[in-house]
Amino acid sequence: MTTSLQGIRKNKPLRNLILLGAAAVIAVTASVVAVSVQERGVRVQFTPVQMYPGLETKLDQVAKIRYTLARGMRESEKITLVRGDDGKWVVVERKDYPARQDLVRKALIGVSELVLYEPRTARPEWHRNLGLLAPESLGTSSRVEFFAKDGTKMVALLAGKVPEQTVDARGEGMIYVRRDGEDQTWLARGRLPLIQSAQDWLDQTFLDVSRDEIKRVTLWAGTDHPVVMSRASKDENDFTLADIPKGRTTRGAPIVNGAATSIVDLAFDDATPVASLLFPDTSPKAVFETFDGLRLSLTMTGGGGALWAKVEAVADPALVAPGTDMKAAEAKAAAITARTAPWAYKLPQAAGSQLTQSMDLLTHEGGLPE
Fold first, then answer.
1. Residue 84, helix vs strand vs coil
2. Residues 57/108, Cβ–Cβ less than 8 Å
3. 327 bridge partner residues
4. What is the pTM of this model?
5. What is the pLDDT of residues 353-365, one digit of tens each?
């Protein structure tokens, strides 16, 4: 051991190299300790605060909400929600179709309740790691902006990644955020809907017809081969398929009932002004009639699995016994017309298939021979 030490002392270059290595280790260790102490100090000293203090008292002043969403190599997409004079919100990118009011409220309240929980990096080159690079810069963040009626910007934030397994018992979770135009990033706590498509903001209130109400259904109405399914009373669970050709039989009650009740809880994929589409005279039509005298007609156009439908609702006394009170049917027809008349609706593929079922599809060979 003594011999080795003497050798190192005599070998000046080796001695200097060892001394420099030791100094480097000491410096790195000191830096790590200093950073750790500093981070602990910052976290201990920082008190969580609202991202936008006082915003909760000004939500009634918000007249426009704009989301800017990343689309990779494509240009970023905007979703704009505007509050009308009646206080109702609409989706500008869908020709002012009514928005989901409950979802808009969640967006308003969500931003107002965001709490900055811990500071994170303020270095722009690290924004991408937190998902906070601006969407226009090929980032993945979502920009959320609130505007007052006069155009004043009230809120502008970028929302980034959501750390895994951070939702608590109240349904709140963690998300990385930064104020637009600022480099400082934060780990925030709250609930903020970051809807990624304009369609998902659309109010899905549509036809509002229950299964119990449906009395008779006619698919391909107005053609030479209509498909009629009906039941005599609400007590009957199954619909009866009329005019089954000889030599054929139905594919079973579940298949027939599925077609007859296809508008129950029907949602839509998208909406557009009805005047923007053509509905030829040969368009397939499905007609639903209720026990209280409502007739609901869906006329369809399109193809390739993308059917669009326009809706007509009327109350017809001819559908019920003489003297029947038509007030409920009239009120429902008026409500449906007010809601749907200006629009055409893109139907889910499964619903479009049900509404265009033919006799051949609802039956198969196996009935009595001719």
1. coil
2. no
3. none
4. 0.79
5. 999 999 999 999 8
